[in-house]
Amino acid sequence: MKNILHYILLLALGMLGWSCEKDNYEPPSSQLTGQLLYQGTPLQLQHDRVSYELYQDGFGKRGPISSTFTTEGAFSHLLFNGLYKMVVPVGQGPFVWSGSDQGDTLLITVNGNTEMDIEVTPYWMVRNSQFSASGGNVTGTFGLEQIITDANARTIENATLYVSKTIFASSENNIAIGTIEGGAITDMNSISLSATVPELVPAQSYVFARIGVKIAGIEDMIFSPVQKIDL
Amino acid sequence: MKKIYYTVLVLFLSFGWACQSDDDFLDRPPTQVLTTEQAFSDPAQVLSILANLYSRQYHVYRLNDWRTFGDFNEAFYAHTQDAANLFHTNNTWDFRGVDLGNNVFTWTTWDYTYIRELNLFLERIEPSPLTEDLKTRYAAEARFLRAAYYLELAQLYGGVPIILEPQEYDFSGDPTYLQVPRSTEAGIYDFVIQEAEALKSLLPVDADSKSRATAGAALAMKARAAIYAASIAKYNNAVTPSVSLPGNEIGIPASRAEEYYNTALTAAQEIINGTAGAYSLYMKNPTNLSENFAAIFYDKSANPEVIWANDYLLKYRTHYFTGANQPRYGAEEEEGGALNPTLNLVQEFELLDNTFAPLATVDTDGNPIYYENQSDIFANRDARLAGTVILPGSTFKSRPVDIWAGYQLADGSIITGTDRGDQRILPGQTVEQQVVGFDGPVAGAVQNAQMGFYLRKYVDPAIGSGQRGIQSEVWKIRYRYADILLIAAEAAFELGQPDVAAGYMNQVRERAGFTVPLTGADITFDRIVHERRVEFAFEGLYFMDLKRFRLAHRVFDGVTMDLTGLRADIGEATNRSTMPWGLWPYRIYNPGSENDGKWIYKEILPNQATAADNWQLGNYYSKISDEILSNNPKLVRQPLQ
């Protein structure tokens, strides 16, 4: 009897010792990072809005890792080494995906930490944005540069100054906005918008401001860099 | 020798008998399971299978899950703090709708098991020995349910795989022959229209049959499918051309709009002309039009308005919608008030002179208006308001609701409590007295009239309906006559016949108490959208209208709503409704003044409502999950997601 117990104990210990080694995979450890750029300038986007998908073929069912670009157009993933395909679904993003010759698909080979900046062509860029605050008003001045001017050119629907309590200033997170319709813009190089900051609860001595530009026929907006302003 | 003889004998006997009796012994008819032949040999059996298929019909708004009823800021979720957070602190919707837990989302269904079982039913009833009449009717009902489900799928997903036979897998290791690609969006609506057209002559003409499919229900389904297809053809191309797929799985060519509008108008007129049975607007109580309107939804005896309903029956199939939403004070259980209709919806109900106006809380100089009675502020409005919403100063189950937020003193300060019916000592008094209604509103507390209103539509006035042990048998109306009239009005308007449209719309408005009929010149797109919003509030049609008119991204544009924004643009189709506003009554405490004891009202934005809703173009069609997509590589993904 005692012998049997000993064997069982031994067997159990052996299983414990081995099973860990056998069952567990190494966690993914290769970091894939990158950013959407236009001529070296990062594209500014809305938080959690412009989505992309990563696919890896050859492992049974095919489903994407779906995610969204950060407000600075960056992305990062911890992955296993291998060949991945990156896709920005049709209609996403205020830019034309000119990343590769594979149509809308960009092939990425991940081998160790990989950095992959992607050059895309936005329809428009917000240039020289400057923000100031005085007397409870936030004023933003900026210029708009049309990048795509060929047959695919698109007009500006409107441009909006978003003032927010957090850096995620956008149509979703704002406490005050100032808007100008695209048709009302006379000088694309110098546009000025202002918004009145309401009383902040709880009180806060600073706000964040950002210019967002809605391009006709494109849902996702392109933004200026966000700036913190002391009131 | 004898030994051998016996051995042989025994062997023979055992072989000969054993085989035979083994067969008999093992091959017995099961006593607990009916074979397919048995199940389809008896009319009552077939009917019970059909009843199961009826009970599984799907609709986005389901009475057995009250949470499906209140989205889009038509109601505030006052049930729990979690419910309020779920619906009012997120700016955007998931592409599958709101997460109700257990992998259920408000806008998803992909029940091809149900479709397969409908197809199996159709296949198995074919060789059954039932009479031809019965077989035709049962088969027609199953086809109706299948088309109705495909219509629901079409409204949520656009084109989906149309599967009309029970598929069998041959275990060859290659399932590709079972994978069906998505139809075009026009294709699935065409299928439903075609089925409905065929079914209207196969199903009985019987306006008294509400829970089973009839010729009227088939025509109503046809009208609805056609009007949806028509408006998508027209408005998708005009407003959101980017919401489309190259294979037209999403998107209907604009050139087909007129054809669909004609189909819708014809189908609706067939019902209106009475060829499918005698349907009419419910008008049993012409002296109290609000009560009359509320009764459409709970009166199940000879209700001429209902064409098809998802029926419930006490003791057998009940739901707790009334229990969840009943006025809290004196309720049959210590719960209720889960959904509070918002001011956004309440103020959309017109004045009886056909004009729009916000509820008058202040005069032109900004001073509060004092009302003698609590209900005076709602006077001279559309009778459907009090039929849809339980207003302060009204009653439910013969008991007055007690909705008021506190006392306002002469200096403008407020005295109120922290719980329903709290007591405080008022200035100049010595005894505590009640300072807030037993029905609330109490800010931050759950299950009371936090918006100042309770829901009335679909809430059952029967005794016991609010008790967990009894519950309610109120039905969920799928198609009703007013819907047919407004479909006819919309189709006629879009086909350039505004006078015809006004005629149909006025019938619905007359029932709501409007005495001045609209003329053809009054009928606009905004009018059509608005009429549907107030007539069909909390019936699931507002959600579909927001989608098919491509209004949702303009109504929910993510811009916060202040008081000025709330009062502006009432009656317009694109009126912003990104945050839920409420209306709280206060009583004036100012002894000696003429205003003492009078009522004032204040608009409030609940502090749980932190988000301004923002509809993304990708929300127009529900997401097909990655699991489904990877099981069938022929399915294309939805656009803009």
Query: Portion of residues in helices of chain A?
Result: under 10%
Total domains of chain A: 2
Q: What is the averaged pLDDT score of chain A? A: 86
Total of DSSP H or I helical runs spanning 4+ residues of chain B: 20
Largest interface: A-B, 22 and 24 residues
Order of helices and strands of chain A: HEEEEEEEEEEEEEEEEEEE
CATH top level of the largest domain in chain A is: Mainly Beta
Tally of discrete structural domains of chain B: 2
- What is the β-strand count of chain A? 19
Structural class of chain A: mainly beta
Largest sheet of chain B: 4 strands, mixed
Strand content of chain B: 5-15%
Explain this structure to me?
- By secondary structure, chain A is mainly β.
- Chain A contains 1 helix and 19 strands.
- Chain A is 10% helix and 45% strand.
- The mean pLDDT of chain A is 86.
- In chain A, the strands form 5 sheets. In chain A, strands 1, 2, 5, 9 and 10 form a 5-stranded mixed β-sheet that branches. In chain A, strands 14, 15, 17, 18 and 19 form a 5-stranded antiparallel β-sheet that branches. Chain A has a 4-stranded antiparallel β-sheet with strand order 4-3-6-8, with no helix packed on it.
- Chain A folds into 2 domains: 30-121, Carboxypeptidase-like, regulatory domain (Immunoglobulin-like, Sandwich), CATH 2.60.40; 123-230, Immunoglobulin-like (Sandwich).
- In chain B, a hairpin with a 2-residue loop joins strand 5 (395-396) and strand 6 (399-400).
- At the A-B interface, loops of A face helix 20 of B.
